[in-house]
Structures are given as C-alpha cells and as structure tokens.
C-alpha cells in the first residue's frame, strides 16, 4: 500500500507511523469495529469526496447496530474527513474511517470499553484490476440477516467476504458472487450486483445485502436516463442468462462482469454498463453539473 503522511486519530492529525493501537484492543479480538470506504477524485476545483454525508451517516448507522457511541457528531466527522484529505495533499484516493472499541476491557461484551476513531487516506487504483472480470459463485453463503446486522459495515462481518474472495481467486477467478441462505443472488464480497436483460436493469432488493452508496447512485443515474430499474430477487440462472452484468462499489466503482461460473454474458462490457460507468466516472470527476451536489470539494 502507498503510505501518506498523516492519519486523523481521536481528534488529532498525527504522523502515519504513529497511528498505533494496543494488542488487547477489543475490536481486534472480536471484530467489533465499524468502518467506511469513500473515494475522492481530482476535479478542476480540487479533490472532491463522493457522497461524503451518506457515508458518514452509514458509519453512524453501523456504529449504532453494535451500540458503539461515536464521541463526535456527523458534522465533526465530515470535517475530520475533509481535513485528513487536505493535510495529505493527494488529489485522488481512498478514505477509511474506522471506529472501534479500544483497549481497557476484555470479554465479548464491549460495554465499558473506550471508543477510538481513525481516518486514513491513501492512493488506491482500480480495486478489481481487470475489467471485465470473471466471477464465480461462492461456496460460502452470505451472512444470514438474523446472524448479525449484515447491512452494516461491521469488521467481523467481513470474514465472510474474505473467505469468498480468497476462494474465487484461488480458483483462477477475479471475484466471488455470494448467494443468500435461500440460494438467491446477494452481492460480491465488497460490491453490489446489477444485471441487464432486454434493456431492463435488475438488482437484488435491500435486506440481505449492504445498501451500497454506489448502488444507489447507479440506480438514480440509470432512472434519470429513462431506464427501468427493478429491485428483484435474482437466481444464479438470471445472471447466467443476462445480456450484461456489473458490480458496483466505492472501491470497485462500476466493474463489468464478463462471465459467471464460465457462462459468458451476451455482452462482456455491454452498452448500458459502459454508459452508466462512463457517466459515473464523469460525475465523480466533477464533469457533470447535474450531480454536483454529490461532491464535497476539499479546499
Ligand atoms: C459487502 C458489500 N457490498 C456492497 C458494497 C458497496 O457499497 P458502496 O457502494 O457503498 O461502497 C460494499 C462496500 O462498501 C460492501 O462491503
């Protein structure tokens, strides 16, 4: 990973190398931390953070699910994120806010543990590398919605994603697709999925997935273009049979899917995928007036 100069920690900007924690930090043992992933892009007016407020609101939602009280307001976290981007003086990159139960008390229940927060930024290129990608249905099923708050970004939930991703890559694929406990299509380890069939765009409904902010953005963009976007329970066969398919996510942006389980899509990077991806990239780079309210310029 490419290091930057500074990390925001518990209200202060400190050198990257000094952002350390104790080995008996509660969250390190029990997965009891929550996090966000945001991107910022170079624009003519300066670096622009994409949908900052929505990410911060989701961070607070995730924290609430594990009863972690963030000792800052959402506005203060927004300002801290802006400040962290600013002091590091990079034009484009990824932002990782993390809120965790710290050092001072062991045992599964975190009640009484101190809460710590960090915000790091670093340059991060295209997450999935190749585009379009080959995807494999994972033997690991997505966490049951009654097992944890699986629509929250809780670090412990991500063991499920790690297993799926490692398995897919070990078998020569670029990424995994997880099914839910009922055998329906859920999401990638860190991405939401869309398919296109006869010019209609489909994506699995909320409830058993992370409600992605890129997912929401792409749905809005597609509807503004006049496409019908339907949230629908999808079976693997719907994806095998699709004209186009793509993943969305902050890290993955819009990544076209060439095949699922070696079933090629009719169009590996189809026209609708390309149109949505190009529009998304023009928006995040500040080249599309209509969606400028999604950007927070760092001055
Ligand atoms: C499991 C999972 N699904 C979907 C997404 C995509 O969400 P977003 O577009 O908000 O980054 C992510 C990434 O945060 C994720 O971890």
Question: Could you explain how this protein is built, in words?
Answer:
This protein folds into two domains: 6-122, 2-Layer Sandwich (D-amino Acid Aminotransferase, Chain A, domain 1); 133-284, D-amino Acid Aminotransferase, subunit A, domain 2 (D-amino Acid Aminotransferase, Chain A, domain 2, Alpha-Beta Barrel), CATH 3.20.10. Helices cover 26% and strands 28% of the residues. The protein has helices at 26-30, 52-65, 74-88, 158-170, 213-224, 236-240, 271-284; strands at 6-9, 12-15, 33-35, 38-43, 46-50, 93-101, 115-122, 133-137, 175-179, 185-187, 192-197, 200-203, 229-231, 244-249, 253-260, 263-264, 295-297. Strand 15 and strand 16 (263-264) form a beta hairpin. Helix 2 packs across helix 3 (74-88). Pyridoxal-5'-phosphate (PLP) binds at residues 37, 161, 187, 190-192, 210, 212-215, 248-250.
């Amino acid at each position: 990973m490419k290091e930057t100069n500074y990390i925001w920690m518990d209200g202060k900007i400190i050198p990257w190398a000094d952002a350390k924690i104790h080995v008996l930090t509660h969250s390190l043992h029990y997965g009891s931390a929550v996090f966000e992933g945001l991107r910022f892009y170079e624009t003519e007016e300066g670096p622009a953070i994409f949908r900052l407020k929505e990410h911060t609101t989701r961070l607070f939602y995730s924290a609430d699910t594990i009863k972690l009280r963030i000792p800052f307001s959402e506005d203060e976290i927004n300002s801290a994120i802006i400040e962290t981007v600013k002091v590091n003086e990079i034009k484009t990159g990824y932002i990782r806010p993390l809120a965790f139960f710290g050092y001072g008390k062991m045992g599964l229940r975190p009640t009484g543990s101190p809460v710590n927060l960090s915000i790091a930024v670093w340059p991060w290129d295209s997450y999935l590398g190749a585009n379009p990608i080959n995807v494999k249905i994972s033997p690991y099923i997505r966490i049951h919605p009654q097992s944890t708050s699986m629509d929250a970004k809780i670090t412990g939930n991500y063991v499920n994603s790690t297993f799926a991703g490692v398995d897919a890559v070990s078998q020569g694929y670029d990424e995994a697709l997880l099914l839910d406990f009922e055998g329906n299509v859920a999401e990638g380890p860190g991405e939401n999925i869309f398919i296109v069939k006869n010019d209609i765009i489909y994506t699995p409904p909320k409830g058993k997935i992370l409600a992605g902010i890129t997912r929401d953005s792409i749905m809005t963009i597609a509807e503004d273009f006049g496409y019908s976007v339907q949230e629908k329970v999808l079976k693997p066969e719907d994806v095998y049979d699709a004209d186009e398919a793509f993943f969305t996510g902050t890290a993955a942006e819009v990544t076209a899917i060439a095949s699922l389980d070696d079933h090629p899509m009719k169009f590996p990077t189809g026209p609708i995928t390309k149109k949505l991806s190009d529009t998304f990239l023009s928006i995040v780079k500040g080249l599309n007036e209509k969606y400028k309210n999604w950007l927070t310029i760092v001055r």
